[in-house]
Every structure is written in C-alpha cells, then in structure tokens.
Amino acid sequence: MQRGQWGPGAVALSIGLFLFVFLLVPVAQVIYVAFQDPNTGALTLINFIDFFNTSLFQESFVNSLYVAVMSVVLASAFAMPLAYFTTRFNFGGAILIQTLGIVPLIMPPFVGAVAMLLLFGENGSVNLIIDEWFGFTIPFMEGLNGVILVESVHYFPFILINLSAALNNIDRAMEESAQNLGASGMRLFRRIVFPLAMPGYVAGASLVFLKVFDDLATPLLLNINTMLAPQAYLRITSIGIGDPMGYVISVILVAFSLLSLWVSFLALRGKDYATAQKGGGGLMKRDLKAWEKIGCYAVVILILLLVLSPHIGLALLSFGTVWSFSVLPDAFTFAHYESVFSTATQYISNTLLYAGLAATIDVVFATAIAYVVWRTKLVGRQWLDFIAMGAVAIPGVVLGIGYLRTFVEFNVPIVDKPLASWWVIIVIALAIRRLPYALRACVAALQQVSVALEEAAENLGATKRRTVLRIVVPLMSGGIVAGFVTSFATAAVELSATIMLVSAQSDAPLAYGIYEFMQAAAGRGPGAALGIVAVLIVGIATYVSHRIIERKEIERTPEVALSTGA
Amino acid sequence: MAMDQTPADVGVGVSIRNLSLSFGENEVLKGVNLEIEPGELFTFLGPSGSGKSTLLRAIAGFGPEPKGHILIGNDEVANLPPWQRSVGMVFQSYALWPHMTVRKNVAFGLEERKVPAAEIRRRVDSALELVGLSDFTERRPSQLSGGQQQRVALARTIVVEPRVLLLDEPLSNLDANLRVQMRREIVELQRKLQLTTIFVTHDQEEANTISDRIAVLNDGIIQQVGSPMELYDEPANRFVAHFLGTANLIAGAVRQANGKSLFEATDGTVLSLDGAKIASGEKCTAMFRPQSLRISTERGQPEEGWVEIPGAIEHREFLGGLIRYSVSAGSHTLLVDDTHQKGRPTYEVGDSVVLGLETSHVRILGG
Questions:
Q1: Which residues of chain B make contact with A182, given a CB cutoff of 8 A?
Q2: Can you tell me the distance from the alpha carbon of B287 to that of B307, in angstroms, rounded to the nearest whole number?
Q3: B142 and A182 in contact by Cβ < 8 A?
Q4: B14-23: strand order across its sheet
Q5: Which residues of B163-198 are buried (b: 16+ CB within 10 A; e: fewer)?
Q6: Is the same domain home to A313 and A353?
Q7: Could you say which of B93, B99, B108 has the minimum Cβ distance to residue A171?
Q8: For the domain with range B246-366, which CATH number is right: 3.40.1190.10, 2.40.10.10, 3.40.50.2020, 2.40.50.140?
Q9: In a domain, A38, yes or no
Q10: Which of B81, B142, B160 sits opposite A181 (nearest CB)?
Q11: Confidence category of residue A284, pLDDT binned at 50, 70, 90
C-alpha cells in the first residue's frame, strides 16, 4: 500500500498544515485566551464567572437563545405546510416551492433586514395599511421580533429542504404495510410517517438554530446589540483585542454550534432512513379537490410573498427616492445605482476577487481531501476530513477574533504589514469558512465515480497522478463546479468574519459596503442598490452553474449508469 | 371492523370478478376473473408489466380504484380501505420500519387492533419463533441479513392472522441459495397455517415449485389458470407455451384426410393428429417441447405414432444434464434436448441427423 502514496501524502500534509495554521491555531488561541487571567496569564474560570455575573451578558445570552429557538419555531411553521403539500398532494405549486430552496443562497439575511424594516416596521407599509383599515399596528419588527422574523424568513428553506427530502425518501411500502396491518389517518402519520421524517426535520432545525445563534450582521443592522455575537464584535472593536469577554462569548458560540451539530448528528446517526426503492418511492400522493387546491395555493403564495419580501423591499428601496411613513416610495430613480457605480465599484471588484480566490482554494482543497479520504489508505486521512468539516462549527466572529489575535504580530515581508490586516487574510477566512460546502459537493461527486473506472485507466498504463487528472477530476467536474459556485456565492455575501478583518475601506468587499451604507438613513438607497448587485452576482452564478451541471449530467449519462450499476 | 378472527376465517377463498383497473389512460387489468380456493397456494405468474403486481395490490386495496368485484370469503372488499381488509401483505422490499425494533415491527398490527399487551407479547413471541428469529427481537431491521428481514416481514404479517396472505415477489431480493431455502420455508409455513396465499413472481421455476395452481398473466389478461404441470403440458396459447419452458412452435393449418386430422406445416411437413380439437382449415400452431424429440443419425422405419424429420445440427449448447441442439429442418429451426451421460456419443455442428417426434406429444394451439 506504500506504492504511489507519496504524492497524495505530500498533498494531504500541506492541506493539513494550512488547516492547522488557519483553523486550529486561531480557534485554540481564542479558547485559550478565554480561560486565561487577563492580568496574570494563569488558567482560570474567572472570565466565565464575570460573564455570567454581568447583567448585560446574561441578557444577551438569554436573548440569543430566545431568538434562535423562536426562529426555529417560526421557520418550522413556514416550512411544515409547504413540505407537507409537496409530498402528499399532486399540485403545480411543488415547483414553486422547490425554487424557494435557493433563496437563502441568493441574499444574506442582513441585506434584507432594512427592507423588512420598511415593509413591516412600526411605520412600514404593512402596518400603515393595517392601521388605516383596522386601527392598530402589529410589532413585527419590534426589538427581538425583528431579528426573529428576518432570520426565520431567511432560513426556513433549510428545514423545508431537509424535511421534504426526508418525506420523499420514505418508501411507499412503509406506509402501505402499516395500512395493510390496520393503521390509517393520524395514527399512521404519528407512528410511521412522522418518526421516519423526524431525522430530516431535526437536521434542518439544528442548522437553522446554529445559523441564527451565530449571526452577527442581522442584529447589528437592526440595532439590537444585546445578543452574543454583536457583544463579541462590539467588545473587540471598541475595547480592543485584549478584552477577555469577546473570547468568552466566542467559546459560548462555538459550544452551542457544536451542540446543535451534535444534536443533528444524533438525529441522523444509524438512521439511514432513505428507504425509497429504485424507481418508486415517495409517499402516496393524492389529487386535490378544487377548494383544497385554492387553499393550498393561498398558503403557498402567502409564504412566498413573505419570503420574497426582503427582495421586493430591497428592489423598491434601491429605486425609490424617499421612503418614509408611506406604503411605497414617493418616486423612483436610478440615482442610487449611478452613485454606487461611480463611487463604490471597488466593493464589487474586491468581492469578485476575494470570493473567486476563496472558492478556487476551496475546490482544489476539497477535491484533494475527497480523493485522499476516499481513495487512499493514508494514516489519519479521516482527520483531514473531520477538521475541514469542523469549520462549520466555527462562527465567523470567532474566526475573525482568532485571526486578529493570532496574526496581528505576524508581519508579511514584502507588503510590510501585519497578516491580520492584509486583504489576503479575508480570502483565507472565506476559504476556511466555505470549505465544508465545497468538500461536501466534491465528496458526493467522487462517490459517484466507480473505482472500476480508475482501475481501468491504471490497467491501461496511467499512473495515479494521470488517472486523477484524466479520469477522476473530469468525472467529478459537475460536483466541483457546484462546490465552486456554492462557495463563491456564499463567500460573496459573507459578513461576520469579514467585518472583523477589514482594515481599510479600499480592501472592503460588497457585504461590508452594504453594511456601511445601511448604517445611515441617507445611505440606504445606495446600500440597497449595492444589495441588488450582490443578489444579481449570486443569482447569475447560481444559474450558470445549474446550467453547466445540467449539461454535464446529460453528457455523462452512460458513466452514471455504470457507476450506479457497480 | 372485521378484525376479530375465528379459526373458521382462516382459509377463505378469494373471488375476483370482472376486475378492470387503469392508471390514467393506461388499462393495466382488463376484466380479470379468478376463483382462488380456500387454503390454496396460488401464484400470479407473468413478465414485468403484465399486471400481476397490480392485481395483488388491488386485492390489498392499494393503487387506483378498480372496477369490478373482489370477494374474500363472502365479503365484498373492493370498496374497503386497505386497513379494513384483513389481508396480510409481504412487500417486495419487506418495508420493515427502520425506526422500530423487530419486536415493535411485529407487534404493530396487533397494537392497531387494540389487542391486550400480554397477548401481544405472547403472539409476537410465537410468530418470531415460527420464523426462527426468537433471538433477534431487539435488533433493528438494518442489523439483519436479507433472509432475516424477509422472515420478520412474514412474521409481522401472519401474526395478525390475516384471512389471506399476499406475497409480492418476496424472494427477488435474496441470493440464489437463500431463495431456494426461503421458498421451501414459505411453502411449509403455508401448509402449517392452512392460509390462502397468493404469490406473485416472474420466475417460472419459483412458480412451478411452490404453487398448487398458477394464473399466467400477460398484458392485463389472464392467459391460463391451472396446475404447474397442466400449464407446461397443455398450454392454452403461444404465450403460455413460451413463458413456461422452451417450446418449438410451427405455424400451419389442420386438414382432414381419410377421416383423420392432419397438421400441415407451412413448409409441407405433415403430422397426423389424434383427437385435435381444431376445426379443419383453421390456421394454427403445433407446439412440442424439446425433450419430445428423439435424435439419431439413421433413418429407420418410423414406429406407429411417430414422424421423422431430417435436419442438420446448427448449434449446440452443453447444459450439464442436457445437451440442447438447434437443428435446421426445412425452413424451421427446432430445439432438441438430448440427455447427457458420460461417454454417450454427441453430435457435431454440421452433422446430418433425423429427429423422431411422437405425435401424441404435439399440442395444437389456436392462432
């Protein structure tokens, strides 16, 4: 087994080294500082005791938990009817609902937050209408409500996708055998369908919890500072990187991330409930009666409107002149786009550069890691996979703080400034944070490639390296493109790590620019215009990749058949 | 609900009367009529797409609503939902619920019938003992082998004492050796329980070995019903002849000569037939099995009731106990099975041979 292992070994080692320096060390540093006495440097729990004795932090902790839990609840309320409709009934809304799945990819929640404020705020369009008709207002966006609404509207597709997939993976025979043995109606649902779909739901819900709990930008934009992530950010940026509270909060954020990943792992462990047989599968679907169809469409359209409201609001804001105390903007103009393209183009070019570089690093590493883990017998190869995937559990704020702390004294030779304030560190942070996405796509692609195809190449005289280049990578290309685009699109709108690491206006990417604009009322128009640009970039990238993957699928149909037949 | 079982319920008959069923425009069952006797092991045999599984599922109450009648015992069930029919079905994929242990899976149907806990325990234990899985009660389905899963599926179904047992290609997910063993176990279990059982398969060997009677289906129509041997020896049409074993089929017509019925093949070969029920002048097909032909090199004096057909060996397959020759005779290619014994002479490709056929083995099929 030693033969032909040198190349993969060297590759694995260098990737491992990269992950060690840019993931393990900074995170370890953050954890270490959290347990360190700020004056003496000795190990202590004093920082945590201080944290839990400070009423501001107690409140922040409770608020963060409350917002995360309520967002899961509200997101479930959106997702469950939609998942149920698409899997149980035959109706055209299914495609509509499916497209909702890509919404979170297209716009980060904080971009839509301001638009939501204008639509659902105290003096927003919806409340103005309700007030006029019924004489009262609903505090949709009041305090924590605003964060919950924005986050749940944004993240509910995670639950929708996972739950729908789980429901679709239930073999019809599972349901039929229960009916055959005498179960029907609610009992059938409670005893068979629900337990089988549960792991998928829990996986989606814990992902929503994790995302909301760690989110920094949305509460910041809505001016809610009494939550954990904003507190960490504010402590570090206002008091300085020596303040231990930022680190304590970081440890808590990581702990809760790990907890929710663990819950999701428990839910899915040993429960490969994908029971669908080849060709068949999915629960029994029935046709809807006319009035039922109307009801279903009404619910779907209502939820769809709600989900698209950030986009609609943002578009209105970007074209509107003045929008205040009115249902719609007073007049429409292109002025915001003009000002964005005359003053803010560096945000766009920075974003394309950073996200492009980060996504390239991601797919190269992900392909290599996937190959090393699944096709070689290198000792410790699982650790590579494990550590790379572990980046999921590290909130952006934590990584940002870790980088600041670790690399502030490391001077980069030629540019002559600390690594922590060089723009390359932003690229590295983005690459580390999005590596799990690319890795998942690449591993899935590699598993589709039958080992026999590689053996055939080797049998005909190709070396390992040639086989990888000529057979494996081309066959994986669909997954690699998917991984690139997912990494690119999500990196293009990342803010929580970037906001900590941007040291000069000229180095700032789009997300940061939007955040800057949105701070002031006068900047909202241009900010929204910039937001629309971001949505377009991500949307186009997603569409293009979709087309490429589709074409690849068609080209490769014989290989696909072969690999599934093996 | 007709859930309470008395021993008298066990072994009821099933009548299917004029049953038709469509998936949208596509008519899958076209007026099926069948009488299945109490306690019988009955098989639906047919190629994929023949409607055999659809028919079975219709009896269980799955799939689109059929037109016509399904009677179990004396009860019309065609309009009942699946959970009120009390027919036990074993699914092709076993459909064991992965979130429940073996015990829970088997107990499910009894729990749905509100059977007292102590009795559930007793009956589950005895059902699992019956299928030899008493030591696996706390396992999850994923921890069992294919054969064990199959047994759990059987136990889960028979524990509720259904009036009829339906088995949908239950052996197709097992490997060859296990398949033979499981089919014996199923037959033994069926004999022991005296349970009316309907078995669906596309495998004629499987059908022949286990069935009391078989219904051969093709294209949504029952082609023939009978015991395995009847179907093999006296197929009703070309489809059944082909589907159950290898057959030589020769197109021709029947005519009368000297008070005898004669079959004249299109190439002029004439066979005299006794008691063929085909009217003269009608187009028909002569069918005979490869083992009905005797192969030799010399043309002798044909015995009474035999005809001789000269030909040449075209191809030869060694099948172990048999050698199957393809012999070109006139415009036909006939398959001949010759038993193989060590040292016995064989024929080479190109050899001229004479085939002897006993005319009583020839069956005349319409069309």
A1: 1, 3, 83-84, 86, 109, 112-113, 160
A2: 14
A3: no
A4: B26-36, B14-23, B67-72, B75-76
A5: bbbbbbbbbebbeeeebeebbeebbebbeebebbbb
A6: no
A7: B93
A8: 2.40.50.140
A9: no
A10: B160
A11: low
Nearest residue of chain A to residue B113 (CA atoms): A182
- Determine how β-strand B26-36 pairs with β-strand B41-45: unpaired
A275 in reach of chain B (CB within 8 A) = yes
Domain boundary among A287, A315, A333: A333
| A238-263 tens-digit pLDDT | 887 778 888 889 999 999 988 988 88
Residue A130 is encoded by which pair of tokens? 């309700």
Best A169, A180, A192, A277 residue to mutate vs chain B (most B CBs within 10 Å): A180
- Encode pLDDT of A153-196 as tens digits: 888 888 888 888 888 888 888 888 898 898 887 888 888 888 88
Residue A116 domain flag: yes
Domain regions of chain B by residue span: 7-242, 246-366
Fold (topology level) of B7-242: Rossmann fold (3.40.50)
Residue A442 shares a structural domain with residue A503 = yes
Look at the block and give the residue holding tokens 């590493």.
A365
DSSP type of residue B359: G
B34/chain A closest Cα distance in angstroms:
22
A279: contact with B, CB 8 A cutoff: no
Q: Find the domain containing A282 and state its range.
A: 45-333
Interface check A413 vs B, CB under 8 A: no
Question: pTM of this prediction?
Answer: 0.75
Nearest CA in chain B to A182: B83
Report the phi/psi class of residue A415: left, alpha or beta, with left for phi > 0 and alpha for psi in -120 to 50: alpha
For residue A176, the chain B residues in CB contact (below 8 A) are: 60, 62, 82, 89, 91, 95
**pLDDT for B62-92, tens place per residue?**
888 899 999 999 999 998 888 888 899 998 8
Find the angle CA(B221)-CA(B225)-CA(B228) to the nearest 5 degrees.
130
A151 vs B: CB within 8 A: no
Name the least confident of A212-216, A314-318, B71-75, B220-224: A314-318
The amino acid at residue B77 is V
Q: Which domain-ending residue is among A301, A333, A365? A: A333
